[in-house]
Design goal:
519 residues; 6-stranded mixed sheet; 5-stranded antiparallel sheet; alpha+beta
C-alpha cells in the first residue's frame, strides 16, 4: 500500500510539473511575442512620427522663410523686384500678396505656372479660394494653413497676416505638390524593409505602394497636423521575414511544449498501464503459485500415502501391491509433467529456448501423448477418438516438447470439458502442413476470450467461477512450443458446443495419404 501511494504521488507530481511547465512555456512565449510586437509598433510609430515631422518641418520652414522675405521686401518697397526671386523656392508653386481688402497688391501673383494655366489659377484663387480662407481672423505673424480640393485638384495653402507701416497685408503661399510628391517624398520614404503610404481622409492612396492591412502585420498610422489635414502616413513591414520567423518560432514553441506535454502524459499513461499490468501479473503469479502448489501437492500426497502403505506392508495380496505401485508410477508421471510445465514456463520467462530438433514422426509423438493420457481419461470417465494419417511426412520437431504440447491440450479438455465425455483428435497432412486438431464437447469459450486464452496465467471467466484448479500456463506453453516449431495454434469455439484447438506445422513437401482410426 505504501509503495502504491508513493507511485501515485510521483505520478501526480510529474503531471503537475508537466502542466506547470506547459503553462509557463505558453505564457512566456506569448509574453515574448507580445513584447516583440510592442517593440516593433513603438519603433514604427517613432519612425512614422519622425517622417511626418520632417516633411511638415520642411514645408513650414519654407513658408516662414517666404513670409519673412515678402515682409522685408514690402518694408523696403522692393516687392515688385524681389517677389520673383522669393518664389524661386522649389517647394513654392505660387505667392499671393493681398491688402487689407483681400485684393491683390500690384498684380498680386508670382507663380511657376505660365500662360492660360497661370491665369486660370489666379482667377480660381481670387474668386473661390481667397474668400474661403480665414485671413482676417488669423493672428498677426502666425502661420495658418488650409488643405482642400477645388475643381477636383488638391491644394495646400499657407498664409500669414503681416502689419507693416500701419497697413495690413496677407501673404498666401501655395505649396508645389508636384515637387513635394516627386522629389521630397522619395527622400523621406526610400526603399527599405518597410512600406509607406500617404492616404487621404477617404482612405484613397495619394502616394506610395498599395498594400493590404494584414491583421498579422504591424501597421502604424500617423496624421499630418500642420499641412495635409486629415491625411495620414501609414507604415507597414515590407520584409515580414522577422515576423514570420517570430510566428514560426512561436508555433514551434507551442508544438514543442505540446509535444513534450503529450510525451510526458503518454509516459505517465504507459507507466500507469505498466503498473496496472504488473499488479495484475503479480496477482496472477500469486494465483499461479497457489494453483501449482495444490496440483503438485495432490500427486505428492497420493504417492506418499501409497508409498507408506507399501513400506508398512499393509497390502492384502501381491496384486494389491502391484496396483499401489502402478498408482505411484502414474502419479509420479503426472507430477513430472507438472514440473516440466513449470520448468518450461520458467525458460519462457527467462527467454531461453532449450529445444532439441530432429526429423521425427509426428504421428508417433501424438500417439505417445494419447497413451500417456489414458489413465486420466479413465479416471475422468472420458473416451478419446483419434484419427491419424498413417504415412505422415517427417517433421522437424522436438519430440519431448511437442508431446508436452499435445498432453496439455488433452489435459485441458479433460479438466474443463468433462461433461462432453469424449475428446476427438485428428492428425492430417494438408498440402504443405501437418494439422493436428483436438476437439472437446464442453461448454466452449466465449468469442471475446478466445484470443486471450493463450496468455500466461489467463483463465476464462467461466472457469474461474468453478472450483477447478489450474495454473494458467498450459496453453501459453502450447503456443510457445508451436511457435518454436514455426507453426501456428488457434482456437475455434461456439459457447455450449465445445472447442477445437488446431496446431499447424510446416513440412517440406505434400504426400497423398489415406487415414485410419485409432481407438
Amino acid at each position: 500500500m505504501r509503495r502504491l501511494l508513493l507511485v501515485n504521488a510521483l505520478i501526480f507530481a510529474v503531471l503537475a510539473s508537466a502542466v506547470g511547465l506547459a503553462y509557463y512555456g505558453y505564457s512566456y512565449t506569448s509574453e515574448v511575442s507580445t513584447r516583440e510586437r510592442e517593440i516593433i509598433q513603438d519603433t514604427m510609430r517613432d519612425l512614422a512620427e519622425e517622417k511626418v515631422i520632417g516633411i511638415e518641418s520642411l514645408i513650414t520652414s519654407t513658408d516662414d522663410k517666404v513670409f519673412a522675405e515678402v515682409a522685408r521686401a514690402i518694408e523696403l518697397d522692393r516687392l515688385r523686384d524681389d517677389l520673383q526671386t522669393i518664389a524661386g523656392e522649389p517647394l513654392v508653386e505660387s505667392i499671393y500678396v493681398l491688402d487689407d481688402r483681400v485684393a491683390p497688391v500690384l498684380d498680386g501673383l508670382v507663380s511657376r505656372r505660365t500662360g492660360d494655366e497661370r491665369l486660370r489659377a489666379r482667377t480660381l484663387f481670387l474668386t473661390a479660394i481667397a474668400p474661403s480662407l480665414p485671413l482676417r481672423d488669423q493672428p498677426l505673424n502666425v502661420r495658418g494653413h488650409v488643405h482642400g480640393t477645388w475643381e477636383g485638384r488638391p491644394y495646400l495653402f499657407s498664409f500669414a497676416k503681416k502689419q507693416i507701416d500701419d497697413r495690413t497685408y496677407y501673404v498666401v503661399v501655395e505649396t508645389n505638390l508636384t515637387y513635394l510628391f516627386i522629389n521630397v517624398f522619395p527622400e523621406f520614404f526610400p526603399r527599405s524593409p518597410r512600406l509607406y503610404q500617404v492616404v487621404d481622409q477617404d482612405g484613397l492612396l495619394r502616394y506610395g505602394f498599395d498594400f493590404a492591412a494584414d491583421p498579422s502585420n504591424v501597421v502604424i498610422e500617423q496624421p499630418f497636423n500642420e499641412t495635409f489635414d486629415k491625411w495620414r502616413l501609414r507604415v507597414a513591414q515590407k520584409d515580414v521575414s522577422s515576423q514570420e520567423r517570430a510566428g514560426r518560432r512561436q508555433i514551434l514553441d507551442f508544438v514543442l511544449i505540446g509535444g513534450s506535454l503529450a510525451v510526458i502524459l503518454a509516459g505517465l499513461g504507459v507507466l500507469a498501464l505498466a503498473i496496472r499490468r504488473e499488479r495484475r501479473a503479480n496477482e496472477l503469479k500469486s494465483e499461479f503459485i497457489s494453483n501449482v502448489s495444490h496440483e503438485l501437492k495432490t500427486p505428492l500426497s497420493i504417492i506418499s500415502m501409497f508409498g507408506e502403505l507399501l513400506a508398512l506392508g499393509r497390502v492384502k495380496s501381491p496384486a494389491q501391491g502391484t496396483e499401489y505401485a502402478e498408482i505411484i508410477w502414474r502419479e509420479s508421471v503426472r507430477l513430472a509433467r507438472l514440473i516440466d510445465n513449470v520448468l518450461d514456463f520458467a525458460k519462457i520467462e527467462r527467454g531461453v529456448d532449450a529445444y532439441e530438433f530432429t526429423d521425427a514422426d509426428v504421428g508417433e509423438v501424438v500417439a505417445r501423448a494419447i497413451e500417456l493420457s489414458q489413465h486420466r481419461l479413465a479416471k475422468a470417465e472420458m473416451t478419446i477418438e483419434a484419427e491419424l494419417d498413417p504415412e505422415l511426412p517427417p517433421v522437424r520437431l522436438d519430440p519431448n516438447a511437442f508431446t508436452l504440447a499435445v498432453l496439455n491440450l488433452i489435459d485441458n479438455a479433460i479438466k474443463y470439458a468433462p461433461d462432453g465425455k469424449k475428446i476427438a483428435i485428428t492428425l492430417k497432412h494438408l498440402d504443405d502442413r501437418v494439422v493436428l486438431r483436438v476437439r472437446d464437447w464442453g461448454q466452449g469459450i466465449e468469442p471475446d476470450e478466445q484470443a486471450r486464452i493463450f496468455e500466461r496465467f489467463y483463465r476464462a471467466r467461466a472457469v474461474r467461477l468453478k472450483p477447478i484448479r489450474g495454473s494458467g500456463i498450459g496453453l501459453a506453453l502450447v503456443e510457445h512450443i508451436v511457435q518454436a516449431h514455426h507453426g501456428t495454434v488457434s482456437c475455434a469455439s461456439t459457447p455450449g458446443q465445445g472447442a477445437t484447438f488446431t496446431i499447424s506445422l510446416p513440412v517440406p513437401s505434400a504426400t497423398a495419404v489415406r487415414g485410419r482410426t485409432v481407438a
